[in-house]
Amino acid sequence: MVLDRLRAAVRRVRPVPAFTLERQPDALPKTGLFAEPVRVFSLRVLDPEPLADGRRRVQFLVEVRDAEDRRCSDLAVEARVRGPERERVVSGTTDLLGRIRFRMAGPAGEYAIAVTDVAAGGLAFDAARDTTTRAVVD
Predict the structure, then answer these.
(1) Superkingdom of the source (predicted)?
(2) Cis peptide leading into 37, omega within 30 of 0?
(3) What is the pTM of this model?
(4) Does 3 fall in a domain?
(5) What integer pLDDT is reported at residue 86 of this predicted model?
(6) 11 three-state secondary structure
(7) How far apart are CA 126 and CA 109, in angstroms?
(8) CB-based contact 71:97 (threshold 8 Å)
(9) How far apart are CA 38 and CA 119, in angstroms?
């Protein structure tokens, strides 16, 4: 009972601030930050890394730029990555240089990536450009 009175007194002195939920960053308008349409500027396969269990880790580096050739940081990128064992839809956010790495580990074979969306519909995406690549890992 005493504890309840103390809590009530503290609330009167220091009221609980009202809060509002903020929208997710990719739901916010990005118009004006980047010249549209954004595009995949570069899509490269990095050297595969050997793992302790004999498998390989394949890495794809995606770089996103806008219509004025500026690097696009903090944009969501969605891609479909396929390997000999499985296929996954993955997503992530570009870094300050407008780049993001996607990785997949597995046995030797063919790996491929296809970028399916950039900016989660918040900006026009030039999907007509070459947004797929393949790697054969021995």
Answers:
(1) Bacteria
(2) yes
(3) 0.72
(4) no
(5) 92
(6) helix
(7) 30
(8) yes
(9) 8
